[in-house]
Amino acid sequence: SMPAVLEDLGERPLVIAHRGGKGLWPENTLFAFERATALGVDMLEMDLHLSQDAKLVVIHDETLERTTNGQGPVAHFSLAELQALDAGYKWTADGGQSYPYRGQGTRIAALEEVFEHFPLIPKALEIKVPDVGMEAVLCEMLAAYDQLDRVIVGSFHERSLKRFRELCPEVATSAGPVSVRLLLALNWLGLSDLLSPSYPVLQIPPQHSGLTLATPRLIRNAQTRGLHVQLWTINEQPEMRRLLEMGANGLITDYPDRALQLLGRS
Ligand code: G3P
Ligand code: CA
Q1: Does residue 72 fall inside a structural domain?
Q2: I want to staple 142 with a disulfide (CB 3.0 to 4.6 A). Which of 83, 147, 187, 266 is the partner?
């Protein structure tokens, strides 16, 4: 059945800001989440790593170089050290001709800050690193910040998801990679009705390794199994339109403004 995190959102297709809308402003920052929320997105997607002092931090890469003025692995720095960096340093919309967010005070966010500033909006949280204890820290924090029914937790690491579900069974999760492959195989064989998913959300790319994953049949079969189908990362309006016509329940996009406009919500 529909998890509480999705219940309030109704039946309309969801616009989900990928990393807070990384095409529009510096990814995974409080600034991005603020702006995306103001646009009217339904959900914020973000990525989690663990700092050296075991705090959950919102950043996509394992290392600092691509998005900040820092260097080296996120896990080698304390939260305080990470928050001294400029998280807007590398953002550019014109291929590096200009960097409008440099020196504007955009910091790496701690997950706690996200919960403090945005308690109500649904969030899709991605555990990026398995085997470092993120699952337990996350589960405790979700309870402490009253977020158990405000989030969907996902990971590309099956054992991380398994661990998280053991610790936090009341929280909605998205299908892990093994479950996704199983669903695709069963769908391909015409046997998707054999699937009885224990997770409520399916987040997949429309294509993967040259294969089309998002077909009308896959979406229909997944929905028949009770799954909410969210597709990533959909940035162009023609593809957004195509997937919505196919019945997608949500679009995870770097450009939530485009999706909202297409849906007549801006
Ligand atoms: O929600 C899935 C999507 O966020 C995965 O891609 O690399 O942007 O985390 P990535
Ligand atoms: Ca992600």
Answers
A1: no
A2: 147
Residues 37-61 have pLDDT tens digits of 999 999 999 999 999 999 999 999 9
Taking the CA of residue 230 as reference, the ligand 1 atom at the shortest distance is 1
The Cα 168–Cα 148 span in angstroms is 8
**Which ranges of the chain does DSSP label H, i.e. alpha helix?**
4-7, 30-39, 79-83, 111-117, 134-144, 158-167, 177-188, 216-224, 237-245, 256-262
Encoding tokens for residue 181?
Answer: 């492959």
Interface confidence (ipTM) of the complex: 0.97
Ligand 1: residue of 16, 18, 174, 199 to mutate (most ligand atoms within 8 A of CB) is 18
**Domain count within the chain:** 1
Instruction: State the CATH number of the domain containing residue 147.
Output: 3.20.20.190
**Has residue 101 been placed in a domain?**
no
Task: Say whether pLDDT at 1 is over 80.
Answer: no
Mean pLDDT over 127-132 rounds to 97
What is the C-alpha separation between 187 and 215, in angstroms, rounded?
10
236 in a domain, yes or no?
yes
- Given this model, what pLDDT does residue 192 score? 86
Question: Ligand nearest 16 Cα, by number?
Answer: 1
Q: What is the pLDDT of residues 200-213, one digit of tens each?
A: 999 999 999 999 99
Q: By residue range, what is the domain housing residue 228?
A: 12-49+124-262
